[in-house]
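Run log // design_07
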């Protein structure tokens, strides 16, 4: 079979033999993981059902750059490893667990996002039962802790123009563990044209969060809020057996708003199936326990 030649008269082998990879700037590639869990708030009154809060795993950087700031767990992709394998490896190293919900979010590729060099970050969303986690800070970290996390709208503007529509939302990100409080103001801009949509995230304020991780965290929360509306993704945050009240609390902390009980059960009750088990907490009436109902297409 006759070998194909390009416009310079080269076969593929000849082209590859002459190819010089150093002619192009190479970025480093990292994975950063937004690992969420749901946990009970501390409640002094044992007769009151504990409320839940959404938590995010962060590490305190023990070296430059961003020394002393808090960052998402992650690391560089190793040779002969794709980003999904790197994310699974880092997850196992940081938390001691594997085979959990892990979803690729977005690739953050701003050339100036890391002061060391051009580092592209392939971000991932992970949902985990925090009671099963064994946290171990990596080599470049001093501590790894769970932070309560909230994302609220601070202001919003819309605009119309010929051939398009735009919306700008300023979102206040707040995370807390004890006396350590982290915050950022992130602007999310969406522009819609007849031919498509463009989005942009911009950090307006940042207090204690490393690199551009405030963008990644904001993006992850918005993705999570969107997907709970039409998938059963939220059930990755409940234990094997749970009450419908506990499940509703999971949805409320993700969406950041209270839900009407009857409406919630009509919409999301199909995601759970009843068992013969009941709760046995002291001070509370027994409640029926449910488990995840695996939906088939």
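design_07 sequence
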């Amino acid at each position: 079979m006759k070998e194909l030649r390009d416009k310079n008269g080269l076969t593929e082998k000849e082209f590859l033999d002459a190819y010089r990879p150093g002619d192009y700037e190479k970025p480093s590639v990292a994975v950063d993981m937004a690992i969420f869990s749901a946990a009970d708030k501390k409640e002094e009154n044992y007769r009151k059902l504990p409320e839940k809060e959404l938590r995010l795993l962060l590490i305190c950087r023990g070296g430059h750059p961003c020394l002393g700031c808090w960052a998402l767990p992650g690391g560089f992709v190793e040779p002969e490893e794709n980003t999904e394998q790197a994310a699974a490896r880092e997850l196992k190293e940081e938390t001691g667990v594997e085979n959990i919900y892990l979803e690729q979010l977005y690739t953050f590729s701003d050339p100036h996002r890391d002061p060391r060099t051009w580092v592209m970050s392939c971000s991932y969303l992970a949902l985990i039962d925090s009671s099963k986690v064994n946290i171990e800070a990596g080599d470049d970290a001093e501590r790894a802790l769970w932070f309560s996390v909230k994302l609220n709208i601070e202001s919003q503007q819309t605009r119309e123009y010929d051939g398009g529509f735009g919306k700008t939302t300023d979102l206040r990100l707040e995370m807390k563990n004890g006396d350590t409080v982290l915050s950022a103001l992130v602007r999310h801009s969406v522009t819609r044209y007849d031919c498509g949509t463009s989005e942009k995230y911009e950090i307006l304020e940042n207090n204690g969060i490393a690199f551009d991780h405030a963008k990644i965290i904001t993006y992850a929360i918005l993705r999570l809020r969107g997907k709970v509306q039409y998938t059963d993704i939220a059930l990755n945050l409940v234990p094997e057996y749970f009450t419908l009240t506990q499940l509703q609390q999971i949805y409320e902390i993700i969406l950041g708003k209270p839900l009407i009980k009857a409406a919630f059960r009509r919409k999301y009750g199909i995601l759970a199936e009843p068992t013969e088990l009941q709760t046995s907490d002291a001070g509370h009436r027994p409640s029926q326990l449910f488990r995840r109902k695996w939906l088939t297409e």
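The helical segments are 12-18, 83-95, 213-227, 244-255, 261-268.
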